[in-house]
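Lab notebook, bench 4. The sequencing result for the construct came back, and we need a structural model before the next group meeting so we can plan mutations. Quick request posted to the team channel:

Model the 3D structure of this chain.
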Amino acid sequence: MENSEIEQSLDLISLVLKGGPVMIILLIMSIISLAIILLKLYQFYRSELYSSNKFIPIFKLLKKNQITQAQELLNPIIHPSSKIILSIVHNKKLNNEDRENEVSIVGEKQIRNLEFLLKPLEVIANIAPLLGLLGTVIGMITAFSKLENAGSKVDPSILAGGIWEALLTTAFGLIVAIPALGAFYWLDGKVDKVREEMRHAAITTNTIIKNLK
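Done. Here's the predicted structure in token form:
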């Protein structure tokens, strides 16, 4: 069993080496892409983005003017909406314009934190197929160059071997790009959902605060 695993690892390494420098770059990009995806999944899970119903009892406390109790419930919550609600509560004595400015600053900071590293993931998803295509073109040029140098002693295996080695980079580029692009759109969609939840939390909290005055 161990020998077969070692052989598979060696085969994978040989494939990467046959693809040339472009293949190595794509391998590095795949590692970076995987690291970003895992890091963002952990961040989103830790930020409790999957549960926004916990704010319902907080809104009920605010409606009863139980500000201190509401703050005690909000403090341990990591969800970005909690920071929005706390900002409004802390700045409830400000006029509407100043309070909205404070909330905008807090909201932008939370969104930037969620969007961190999403842009590099998008770049990898867009560049990987192009790099794969570049590797294929370089490989094809090399294969036809070998064929030309062979002169009258043309061996079809030279061309066939060169072509399949060249196509490796295109295939690997797509393997890197497809999951990266899918993950980017999913994560970006999650950020959009949180942005909408923050907006809803801000509107609800502002309405409650105004009614308390």
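The mean pLDDT is 85.
Will bring this to the meeting.
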